[in-house]
## 1
Amino acid sequence: MLAGGRQDGRPRAVLTVDVEDWHQLAGRAVGRMGWDAPHEEFVRQVDDTLELLGELDVRATFFVLGMTARNHPGVVDRIAAEEHEIACHGWAHVRAWTQSASGFRRDVEQGLAALDRLGIPAPSGYRAPAFSLTKKTPWAFGILAELGFRYDSSHYDSPRIPGCLPAFEATPGPVIELPIAVARIRGRRLPVGGGSYWRVLPRRLIRNAVSQLAVEPGFPVLYFHPYELGRAPLRLTLPHGSGAKVRARAAWKTVRYNPGRGRVSALLTETAERLQLVSCKEALAHVELARGSTPPRRLIALTPANERSSHDRSSTVAIAGGPGAAEGQQTLEIGST
Ligand SMILES: [Zn+2]
């Protein structure tokens, strides 16, 4: 059964939203005084997002940032009331590869505690800030398994992510990876999963690439943010007396994040007409079903040992340290290309 109770023959893609307050994160990045205060514009952005998904009759997965949820508990309630899946985006939106293993664990636990306080005790899924589970964080997947996650959606084989895992590997343990959509065009990686790429790449290119990925085995995962789907332009207001450096950085943020925002919801609407957009939870049900028979090639495929580099092998061993690693000789190649 599909999101919204519909069932049809269209290819499927997974729709996800990273719930973080742009004003909060941008304010912190530019050194704004009082950056952590709740921003009402964020509430309007989430409302616009929920309204759009309601019109499209789509149930998505919302990866909620802990410190944003603390500021806006009502927002999380509204997302859950619309029957979307709530998942964990950690607490402070700090890239995982800048943290130690224990720091990463603390951040995720804090994110989980924030959701727990809002009546969401055990979300199934996790996404790292800025897709930052990379070659530098081989311990992350074991920690996610220990914390009880059933899936992760942090892998983005993008040229812009330093040290990203080109051929994702994990042991066939309890955590399944749902990687972000990446097309291969003339042998080059083209991230088409969402975010800034949907604001700048030609619409036809994105449309065709995502449609092509959707007819291949597995599910292309798309990701957006409320600030991309909100109607009002983004503006980082500053308190009186902010210094010249902060004002210049804030101006740059608005210049950088506003162009192309209007295209995102239009393109998403077109995509929803061609594809069934489902939540991670629903995709996971299909993946787990497939694990009992022939695994989907893109999501879970066996990687012959002789095709792995020495770096990949060491990465596999590190990840194999986590729970569920008993059949460590069978590795899963999980990539969206
Ligand atoms: Zn994020």
## 2
Amino acid sequence: MVNNSRRIATDFSGLMRHPAVQAALPSCRQQIAMQPELLSPQAVHRLLKSRRSIRRFEPTPIPDDTMTRVLESAKWAPSAHNRQPWRFAVLANRAWQQRLADAMAAQLTADLQVDGVPQEAIEKDTQRSQQRLTSAAALVVVCLTMGDMDTYPDAIRQQNERIMAIQSTAMAGQNLLLAAHAEGLGGVWMCGPLFCPDVVRTTLELPAAWEPQGVIALGFPAEMRTKTREPLNTRVVYR
Ligand SMILES: Cc1cc2nc3c(=O)[nH]c(=O)nc-3n(C[C@H](O)[C@H](O)[C@H](O)COP(=O)(O)O)c2cc1C
């Protein structure tokens, strides 16, 4: 079934001039603005800028209610047509984490052997990946599904729809990392599952339509990291 909500006309200028809409605008603006007594813009900017990718964790488990709050905030990310194509598999259990780490390590080993990488380097690489996955207090495997997205008869628009699902899912991942940071947790997005989606889906017994995109390792941080960013004028143009 083709469901193209994007084709609906989006010229709201007449509607915006309507007296009822004009009367409601001040309260809309109030709703949209951050409530300063809760969170100043400076505090938000500080939160956004102070998040770092954390790869070493304390063994302390993440309380269930903390994890739920983090996932709740993740799901408030924007998404194309508000279809919310993200799916999360939460692994707070060491046995499942180990199972995933072992399966991904086996696939990584096979891939690197095909590439002709020396065995010693392969072992170093796989051990590092396994260590990160099993030392996290929890893993969130970030997946997407195309199940609720629009379908098109042509490959180009279908590909664009797919990219929108990927973009939406990445936004949920960023929300999740920031919410975790706000809770005092550390986290890192790891790309491994993107390279072995079938292995991840099979190992974790996930629904067939779930496409693993990455895994976020989470836990109370056992390291401090610093990073730099390029100056704004190397990344922005104004027209
Ligand atoms: C799509 C994506 C894939 C990433 N994959 C990995 C990864 O596989 N392993 C890893 O240690 N970090 C990974 N990272 C984290 C980046 O290395 C990190 O975000 C970057 O170095 C900037 O550091 P910061 O997050 O501390 O600011 C990934 C980040 C993104 C957004």
